Amino acid sequence: MTYCSISRCNKKIECSDYNLCLIHLKELNSTSFPSTIQLKSPQNLMTHLIEIPRGTSEFTSTEQKFLKDWVKQNAQGLRVDAIYDIFLPQTIVTNYKSYRAGVEARGNFRSLSLPEGNERLLYHGTDHDCAVIYAAVIKSLCKSNNCAGCGILMNSFNISKVGINKQGRTFQRLGQGLYFTPFSSKAHFYGHRGAKPHPNESGRTCRMMFMAKVVLGNTWQPNRVDQNCRSPPSGFDSTWGRKGACPHGGAVLNYEEYAVY
C-alpha cells in the first residue's frame, strides 16, 4: 500500500505499522481520528475500528481468503457481512514488534525465506456480548468485562484470560495457551455463544472473528494431549497441533491449530 489507509486521504504512508500518513498518525490516540468505532480502555488507550467499504480491493481480498479458508462443509448461506481494520494502541504494537524481533533473533527465520519471527495470519473465534453490526450504527461497543471481543480489541490477546471458554468446555488440548488456526471454519465454532441476531434478516445470526498476525517462531509438535502445558519445551516458541495428532477420547485433531503462551 502506497497511500494512507484512511478513505479519501491521498497522502503517502509515513508509518507502515498502521499504513497511515503523518497527519492521521498524530490523531491515532484521540477521538478526532476518523474511525467507525472507538474504544477507550481503562488505561486511557484508544483503539479504532474502521469499516472497510464493500467493493474495495481490500474487502474483496479479505473476503476471498476467509471463504477459501472455510474447509469444513457444515454451513449454508455463509457470507461476510462486515470487515474492520483494527488500529491498536501504539504501546501494544511496540510490544508485539519487540517480541517478534526477539523471536527472529533466536530463530533466523528470514534466512529460511520465512516472515520475521515466522509470523502468520491466523484466525481466532471468541465469545462476545457486542453485536458489532449494530455497533457500526451506534458508533460504540459495550466494553463489558464479560465481552471477550471488546477485551481483545482494547488490550489485544491476554494470557490471563486463557481457559475462559464460553462453549462451557474446560478441555484445552494444547494446554493453557491462546489458540489460533489457519481455518476460518474451525475458528467460527468458538464464536457460537456470541452469535447475535442479524439486524436486517430474521432467523440469521452473525459472529465476530479475528484475523490476527501471530508470531509462531519455532513450533513444537507434540503427539499427545497436555492440558496443563503453560509453555512449549525450551527452544520452542509455540505449539503446533497437527491434523491427526494429539488423540483424546478416541478423537484426534481434524484441523490444525496453534497455541502461544
Automatic annotation (TrEMBL):
Which species is listed as the source?
Answer: Funneliformis geosporum
Keyword Glycosyltransferase tagged: yes
Which Gene3D superfamilies is this protein grouped with? 3.90.228.10
Ranges where the PARP catalytic domain occurs: 33-261
Entry protein name = Poly [ADP-ribose] polymerase
Q: Tell me a Gene Ontology molecular-function term this record carries.
A: NAD+ poly-ADP-ribosyltransferase activity
Which UniProt keywords are present, listed alphabetically? Glycosyltransferase, NAD, Transferase
Q: How would you classify this enzyme at the top EC level?
A: transferase
**Which PROSITE patterns does the record cross-reference, listed alphabetically?**
PARP_CATALYTIC
